[in-house]
Amino acid sequence: MIGGGLLGLEAARGLQSHGVGVDVVHSGGHLMNAQMGPEGGAVLRRSVEALGIGVHTGSRTTAILGRDKVRGVRLRDKPDLACHMVVVAAGIRPNVDVAVSSGLAVERAIVVDDYMRVQDEEDIYAVGECVQHRGEVYGLVAPLWEQAAVLADQVTGANPTSMYLGSRTATKLKVAGVEVASMGLQGPERDTDEHIVFSEPSRGVFKSIVIRNEKVVGATLLGDSRKVAYLTQAFDRGLPLPEERISLMFDVGGPSEEAGAAELANDAQVCNCNGVSKGKLVDAVRGGFKTVSGVMDATRAGKGCGSCKLMVKQIVEWAADGTVEEEPSATYYVPGIPLDKPALMKAIRDQGLRSVSQVFAALAPGGREDARSKMGLASLMKMMLAGEYIDERDARFVNDRVHANIQRDGTFSVVPQMKGGVTSPQQLRRIADVAEKYRIPMVKLTGGQRIDLLGVPKEDLPKVWADLDMPSGYAYGKSFRTVKTCVGQEFCRFGTGDSTKLGVEIESTFQGIESPAKMKLAVSGCPRNCAESLVKDVGVVAIDGGRWEIYVGGAAGAHIRKGDLLATVDDPETVKLLTGRFMQYYRENANWLERTYAFVPRVGIEHLRSVIVDDAEGLGEQLDAAMQASIEDYVDPWRERADPFTPGQFRTALPLEVLPQVPVRADGQPMPQTEAGREAGDLRVTR
Amino acid sequence: MSTHAATGGHLLGPVDQVPVGEGRAFVVDGDQVAVFRLRDGSLRALSAVCSHRGGPIADGTLDRQEVICPLHQHAFSLDSGCSSTGAGPLRTYHASLDDSGNIVIAFPPG
Ligand code: FES
């Protein structure tokens, strides 16, 4: 095999798999010298040799030996190499004869300017592998597409200013069974360039990244393609880079990519909520969707719990091979208003906007209302304006209109408040009576230490609340949900602090506070952590000596994350103060639907500690006051039972269908869902 | 509900039954119909049963173009009933107001 580039190695591997002994003769100093530097080449050489392919670098072929058939090749300054077959894969050179004889400017190829016009020629254009643009001759198809777009703009006159400025080429291939990706520079060129190298030849892994002015300007990855999608993006777009450079090469902490997008089998299920496979995502990309959200809309991937979004993004990026389009809307707080959160909040304040419809009128392009933006705006404005907010109910999601959580069959679940998970015989008796009276098909304990009454038709909600005579537990909103507690000091022989009391106080203080995403809290009475404080949005742990630890940003749902220690404080009052201050900072700064487990690592625990605990920015008082205003604005939404906010607020919207779809056995116990169970339900009529 | 003599449509009573920007469900001649009152005051009507998994369309969130089903967020055009998110289309009805502010629903021809 003459030539140790991409094609040469691939062909060598192909021949070898047909049982032929193969040697690669390469004139360059190392393999694939067009794509990578010498160190990478050396690692690649080891991997190729390990496959049983001989490698001769620095070997220029001067002759092919043999009269009637091939006997070998002659190398400059090296012994001859015997063989029965020679395959040449030594690169391409454009056939420029026609151009030369026509008198066009030709160097290595036809010389063109940024308009794809042949140098010094008014009416001759050229694109593709036969052209030389700013000294570069490209042998890949991607640059041709870019050139063709410019050519089209020029010859049609559609956009006379359209220019081709050269392509940044990134290649990603499997060469001779080895994953290879390379882009931009092979190594540092200036003294100030940063060069990060990782080499593990025994596993055939080599990674090299060149950074200039905080941007990736080159990278080579061999034998491990997991970070390729990310690096390609960083390279193409000049994305900001993490301070810890090592995370450019490896996944350190954070949501891991598990298996790289490339390795995943086509039929592997990516979105487990909506059953979307990798193949369907790839098809959507091939079908013309070029943005992550476009693919998500088209396939429904990531529209359930959302935990697969990162994987979806990586697959889309991989499938689109670096042509994913940036979505400007990625920074918007809500899709329908082209502003990020700080700008949106400033505009609302400056213009004195008080309702969601006013925001659309003032800030949306063309004053266009957007259903997908309403809920986020409603939450944000309530947080900002408290009592000043004009509450337009159509801006709310149905759960927030009827203060209950909608279920798969259109019925609702009712979770009364049970502060800190503490209840009483009277409450339990009332709940039992209600469950019987309204033939609640399912009564269940929740993970947040409360009781859930499931399968309540909308029109029964006001009556159910009236009979319960307990406040809402807010188990439906993007809001403060609940404080889980353990029994603590009072009863527990291990308890070091009164966790129950503190949990109840926290819940009484912050009940119903709306936020960008739900907030689940916990207080544990000792480091045994029976209330799971380490995996809560805010988790408090009593430790020996009467002190309390406050953790933030924990999660144990679709994502698992141990919270970061915000502070260790001496008394419950400080716990409450810092909890409120943290939640307010989160409310003001998190993106819509961004849980604390994403928010805390994004802004950094050190930063949070300085703002919230040390008050380094002097925001403390302001945050406390804003939270206090929200607290004072609290009204139990279940009070609307007696006086509906809108006409028909609790009128059924249920289709005429057999109900309930959570089937009930004759003994009142829920059954697993079956068709038979469905038939056993009763018929509910709309009016 | 009665048949509207003049138009041949079905009278559903006063428009205030439907708050601005929301929808409410009605039974019209045996059909489940979700009637929406847009913020510009105009009315739209679609089948009240989501084509995806039977969700309550009248409980959806809407703007001037689309309504989004509360169960799995499929979106449907208020004018054509077609889904922009890949669900099946919803049947559309003609909704209007009569002189005394009553909702009138007419079945599309065919
Ligand atoms: S039932 Fe309407 S979106 Fe699924």
Reported by name, the CATH topology of chain B is Rieske Iron-sulfur Protein
Report the sheet-strand fraction of chain A: 15-25%
Order of helices and strands of chain B: EEEEEEEEEE
Largest sheet of chain A: 5 strands, antiparallel
Question: What does the largest sheet of chain B look like?
Answer: 7 strands, antiparallel
What share of residues of chain B is helical?
A: under 10%
Query: What is the terminal separation of chain A in angstroms?
Result: 81 Å
Q: Give the CATH H-level superfamily of chain B.
A: Rieske [2Fe-2S] iron-sulphur domain
Largest interface: A-B, 39 and 40 residues
- The CATH architecture term of chain B is 3-layer Sandwich
| Coarse shape of chain A | elongated
Cα gyration radius of chain B (Å): 13 Å
Q: How do the strands line up in the largest sheet of chain B?
A: 1-2-10-9-5-4-3
Number of helices of chain A: 21
What binds here, in terms of ligands, is: FE2/S2 (inorganic) cluster
Total number of strands of chain A: 27
Q: What is the count of helical runs of chain B?
A: 0
Task: Report low-confidence residues of chain B grouped into runs of 5 or more.
Answer: none
The level 1 CATH classification of the domain at 480-632 in chain A is Alpha Beta
- The helix/strand class of chain B is mainly beta
